[in-house]
Design a protein that fits this description.
binds adenosine-5'-diphosphate, binds magnesium ion, Dna Ligase, domain 1, single chain, D-amino Acid Aminotransferase, Chain A, domain 1, 388 residues, alpha+beta, Rossmann fold, seven-stranded mixed sheet
Amino acid sequence: MIRLGVIFGGKSVEHEVSIITAVQAMNKIDSNKYEIIPIYVTKELEFYTGYPLREIDNYKDLSLLKRNTKKVQIVRINNQVYLQTLGWFKRLIKEVDVIFPIGHGSYLEDGSLQGMVKMLDIPCVSSDQLASAIGQDKVVQKLMYKASNIPTSNFVWFYDFEFIDNKESILEQIKKLNYPVIVKPATLGSSVGIKVVKSEEEIVDAINQAIEYDKKIIVEEVIKNLKEVNISILGSQENFELSVIEEVGSKNDFLTYEDKYINGSKSRKGMANSSRIIPANINEKLANDVRTIAKEVYKVIGLSGVVRLDFLIDENKEKVYMNEVNTIPGSLSFYLWDKTNKTYTEELDEMISTSIREYKKESKKIRTFKTNILEGFSGLKGLKGIKK
Ligand SMILES: Nc1ncnc2c1ncn2[C@@H]1O[C@H](COP(=O)(O)OP(=O)(O)O)[C@@H](O)[C@H]1O
Ligand SMILES: [Mg+2]
């Protein structure tokens, strides 16, 4: 049995969404193959483990849930990773072989957790820390798209303090994009802090609002005659698969937080329960463009695990623009894979086994030398001796 630590929650605007995705996924992971160890990260970034974390209803009363579970830390001792209780009598209560992060936004999706797992030196079922960090930063992503000739909307970006120091010149650059524009905090998700701005009068307010959420701000030209489509990719750089393309719709100017989570939340099926059409209602040329761009993005960012790539299409111009990647997509995109060729259980199994395979390959690379060059080291004055 592979002991699988499923980590979810965390300090993010998408905390609750992540709990729903994780509980749903834990119910679908093949329990004959994997021992599932839930690891809930609170909004205070503390770790808890225990069976009650597998029941969604238990999250209604968090203090009760914490009392019924164990607060732990993750440690590596003698080449094995454990969950260890805190306090005076530290006990090693669970062994963990693989970490599966199921969270959105800061800490769990943005490379922080991926870096921590890398230090623990066990497989992590997601993109690595670099790809995850890039995936969380709309500015870095778009700079990479531009550099790689991947079509994406034109944009201006700046830091919060620059907007105070050079407001006029930034507003001048934004004007060149042509209004309407869309203002976004660069590293959040779920449309939080995003606003479409129709004219110059509203721009300062919108930027100030975005600054409340982030130190890095991006302002983009608005793609007109908009159709939004997404595709999921599953696998590794060496061997990956593309899902069917979905089309997502919204009654608003753009998909808001409410569209994504609140309107559909009654049914609970529905993370990102905005209206969707699968497969997307687009012609074969556009579908091919989406797939071609998706493969380029997958390579350029260095993605793995299961990811969802989001596109904006100008239907009149028949032009596809890369918008953003989600390195831990809502519901892990299972609703795309079950319409492609695999059940959720198969998808999860493939994700986990791919990450173990990739970890083993990576482990064969040279990372350290057997000899200790400090053996004969006799203080700083002896430095010359080392070079001999
Ligand atoms: N350049 C753009 N032109 C038109 N609509 C956009 C543009 N960028 C974003 N949107 C709309 O805003 C929504 C949220 O933007 P997105 O960049 O995907 O942020 P998030 O990370 O919050 O999902 C998109 O789903 C789309 O509806
Ligand atoms: Mg989006």
